[in-house]
């Protein structure tokens, strides 16, 4: 729903070769000694010959359109003198040069003076017809067909050159909009920002936008109208998608209603951060989101006015691209697209920034929001979301399907390697998509894409309606499942309600590994479970029994709780200060990449931390940075028990590793640890769990502080 108290437009006139023209304007506009010969044979159909001399586009007026025509001809003549035309050689010297511009400029000044005061007109040259561009709003001129003349201070619209200083009645900031009356549980306030680089003819500038796919053949009016339609379509789709089981319950209440709280439009190119490349490209750069957010005064919008999302409407540029979604929060960067904690201002409140392409349609905009949903839900409980809600997807999926994801509907297969298989009529699957349950399989249905009319947008909406929403009635781990949309509409409010109550700080987890139950003896209930095709087995350990981690994806995954259930205890493993320790016996064989992972929460994909035996020496990495890893000096012999420990202190940036209680190596790594949604794992690491310990491990402990050497010694 679009709410406007007063629409604010910021119009910035962009003329080609700006930095060439402006010095000339400065040079000539203020000169009074420019002399020129009048052209007596100039034709005119509305202007007298004196002014028609400068009317190069024959529209019975003298304005910037004539200048644009002359400038283009001037450039053409500079490149190829054979294009000479007497019509543009105003001083008749056989060249098209700056002297001609001087003549045109003086005649334009005379014409403008005549329009302002008829007593200033050249003899016999009174002008009666309204002319757009003369700064006088008259005749049939309106703000729509001649905004340059008809902008008036006091009309309630801040536009053109008006500022809070020159026209405070129009440009004072809007009061925050109160939440409208709605039947939705939440109102999501949006700041909508559009960038329109316009050429001198009033169309999208093809020197700025990348029009390889002919997406941007639009005038300013056309693209603005399209953005209006995109906003309307996106709002309605997101709202409909928040109705839990709306596909079968017409009386269900929607969880969210979207309100455009602030709307800004800039007739200029979107800011570019030329210090940030798009992945490894040397020629494509990223949108400068800090510039945009600072211009909006984003922290005031978020912290004081309650804005939750920023929708940026833009384009694919010649040398620039943008992220689908970006998230800023004091709880960490949970962005789908980019985990750069410096690319957005961090406010007291959290907010999401989407950059939508107005060359495309509503489906692509919904697609971008879909991926951000996946990131948030995965952050809240990766096991519940990925393994239970999404389930197996793609051509190799087997058994009962669950709900699928953005790229793969439940019956979707590979399509050019990326999914996007929303119209697959050939594949039928058995799935509880319409009756999903978190701990069991719900009532299944056999279907193909006709369930959503084989329509991409309808699938997006139906998937969202399967997300546990308002009054879902589901039970998970003995508790009522909350409305998942609460974490989208009120992320900070929900996070503030999280329970973090470990019983024995600073010791967060202690796994004695006495049996295959892998229970946490710290009292914090961070119990483990064996995972992988190769079994974790119980063996004789350093103290009692121990665990042996085998090949490939063999590992012990730690249950960190579920933030969906407002249990955030697992977030303590995302500490910026920690100690890991364990007894380890490495095998007499090489691990994958010579990296035998001991304990990790992170990988090359998810960052975080990883303690391992690397090239037969103890190692600790932060943010997968091998160049700044702490590596010990002691070579660890095969089939020998060692007490290994690693610490990190964020205030000093020091990484330290200890062998049998003695400091064995140090390194320095400044900056925060960047976490995403990797699991806490004993005996393996990496996105695909392909760095198994391939050895034995016992007495594993994790502390949320960097212990001293003496403290570590006390655990031997």
In a few lines, what is going on in this structure?
Residues 576-710 form the LamG-like jellyroll fold domain. The protein has 716 residues and is an alpha+beta fold.
Structure characterization notes:
This protein has 716 residues and is an alpha+beta fold. The chain has four domains: 31-120, no CATH class; 186-378, no CATH class; 381-466, no CATH class; 507-713, Jelly Rolls (Sandwich). 21% of the residues lie in helices and 21% in strands. The chain is built from 15 helices and 27 strands. Strands 13, 15, 16, 18, 23, 24, 25 and 27 form an eight-stranded antiparallel sheet that branches. A seven-stranded antiparallel sheet has the order 14-17-26-19-20-21-22, with no helix packed on it. Helix 7 (220-241) packs parallel to helix 12 (456-466) and helix 10 crosses helix 11. The model is unreliable at 3-45 and 173-181 (pLDDT under 50).
Distance between the termini: 64 Å
The average pLDDT is 83
Tell how many strands the DSSP assignment holds. Answer: 27
Number of helical runs? Answer: 15
Keywords: Disulfide bond, Membrane, Signal, Transmembrane, Transmembrane helix
Domain LamG-like jellyroll fold: 576-710
Transmembrane segments: 12-30
Protein name: LamG-like jellyroll fold domain-containing protein
How would you summarize the topology of this molecule?
Elements: H1 18-29, H2 49-52, H3 64-79, H4 98-116, H5 147-150, H6 168-171, E1 186-195, H7 220-241, E2 256-266, E3 272-277, E4 285-287, H8 289-296, H9 298-303, E5 307-314, E6 320-321, E7 325-328, E8 351-357, H10 362-380, H11 382-390, E9 429-431, E10 445-447, H12 456-466, E11 475-476, E12 479-480, H13 486-489, H14 491-496, E13 507-511, E14 528-531, E15 537-540, E16 545-548, E17 555-558, E18 577-585, E19 595-603, E20 607-614, E21 617-622, E22 630-631, E23 641-649, E24 654-659, E25 662-668, E26 681-682, E27 696-703, H15 709-713
Helix pairs in contact: 7-10, 7-12, 10-11
């Amino acid at each position: 729903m679009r709410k406007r108290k007063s629409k604010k437009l910021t119009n910035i006139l962009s003329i080609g070769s700006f930095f060439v023209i402006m010095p000339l304007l400065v040079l000539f506009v203020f000169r009074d000694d420019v002399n020129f010969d009048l052209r007596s044979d100039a034709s005119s159909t509305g202007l007298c010959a004196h002014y028609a001399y400068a009317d190069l586009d024959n529209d019975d007026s003298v304005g910037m359109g004539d200048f644009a025509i002359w400038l283009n001809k001037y450039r053409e003549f500079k490149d190829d003198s054979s294009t000479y035309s007497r019509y543009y050689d105003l001083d008749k010297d056989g060249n098209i040069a700056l002297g001609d511009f001087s003549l045109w400029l003086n005649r334009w000044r005379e014409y403008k003076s005549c329009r302002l005061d008829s007593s200033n007109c050249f003899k016999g040259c009174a002008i009666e017809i309204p002319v757009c561009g003369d700064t006088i709003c008259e005749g049939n001129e309106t703000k729509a067909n001649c905004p340059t003349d008809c902008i008036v201070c006091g009309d309630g619209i801040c536009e053109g050159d008006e500022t809070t200083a020159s026209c405070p009645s129009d440009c004072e900031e809007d009061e925050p909009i109160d939440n409208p009356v709605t039947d939705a549980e939440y109102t999501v306030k949006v700041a909508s920002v559009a960038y329109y680089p316009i050429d001198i003819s009033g169309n999208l500038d093809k020197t700025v936008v990348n029009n390889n796919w002919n997406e941007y053949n639009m005038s300013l009016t056309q693209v603005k109208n399209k953005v209006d339609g995109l906003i309307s379509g996106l709002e309605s789709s997101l709202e409909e998608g928040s109705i839990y089981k709306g596909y079968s319950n017409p009386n269900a209440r929607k969880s969210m209603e979207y309100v455009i709280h602030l709307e800004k439009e800039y007739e200029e190119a979107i800011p570019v951060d030329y210090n940030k490349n798009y992945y490894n490209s040397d020629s494509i750069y990223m949108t400068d989101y800090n510039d945009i957010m600072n211009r909006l005064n984003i922290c005031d919008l978020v912290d004081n006015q309650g804005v939750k999302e920023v929708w940026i409407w833009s384009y694919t540029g010649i040398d620039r691209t943008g992220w689908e979604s970006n998230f800023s929060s004091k709880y960490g960067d949970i962005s789908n697209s980019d985990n750069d904690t410096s690319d957005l201002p961090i406010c007291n409140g959290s907010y999401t920034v989407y950059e939508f392409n107005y060359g495309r349609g509503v489906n692509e905009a919904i697609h971008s929001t879909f991926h951000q949903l996946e990131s948030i839900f995965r952050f809240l409980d990766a096991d519940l979301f990925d393994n239970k809600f999404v389930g197996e997807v793609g051509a190799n999926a087997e058994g009962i399907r669950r709900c699928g994801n953005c790229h793969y509907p439940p019956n979707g297969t590979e399509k050019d390697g990326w999914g996007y298989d929303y119209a697959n009529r050939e594949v039928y699957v058995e799935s509880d998509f319409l009756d999903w349950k978190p701990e069991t399989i719900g009532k299944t249905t056999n279907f193909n894409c006709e369930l959503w009319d084989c329509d991409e947008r309808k699938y997006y909406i139906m998937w969202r309606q399967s997300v546990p929403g308002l009054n879902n009635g589901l039970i998970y781990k003995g508790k009522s499942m909350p409305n998942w949309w609460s974490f989208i509409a009120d992320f900070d409010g929900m996070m503030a309600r999280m329970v973090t109550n470990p019983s024995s700080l600073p010791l967060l987890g202690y796994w004695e590994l006495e049996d295959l139950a892998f229970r946490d003896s710290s009292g914090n209930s961070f119990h483990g479970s064996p995972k992988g095709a190769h079994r974790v087995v119980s063996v004789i350990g350093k103290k009692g029994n121990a665990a042996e981690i085998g090949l490939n994806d063999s590992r012990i995954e730690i249950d960190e709780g579920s933030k969906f259930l407002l249990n955030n205890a697992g977030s303590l493993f995302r500490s910026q200060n920690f100690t890991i320790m364990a007894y380890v016996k490495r095998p007499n064989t090489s691990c994958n990449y010579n990296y035998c992972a001991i304990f990790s929460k992170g990988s090359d994909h998810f960052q975080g931390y990883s303690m391992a035996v690397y090239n037969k020496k103890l190692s600790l990495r932060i943010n997968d940075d091998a160049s700044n890893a702490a590596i010990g000096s002691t070579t660890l012999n095969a089939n020998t028990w060692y007490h290994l420990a690693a610490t990190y202190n964020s205030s000093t940036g020091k990484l330290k590793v200890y062998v049998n209680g003695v400091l064995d190596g140090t390194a320095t790594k400044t900056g925060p640890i960047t976490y995403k949604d990797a699991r806490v794992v004993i005996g393996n690491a990496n996105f695909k769990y392909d760095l198994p310990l391939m050895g034995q491990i016992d007495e594993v402990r994790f502390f949320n502080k960097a212990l001293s050497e003496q403290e570590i010694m006390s655990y031997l």
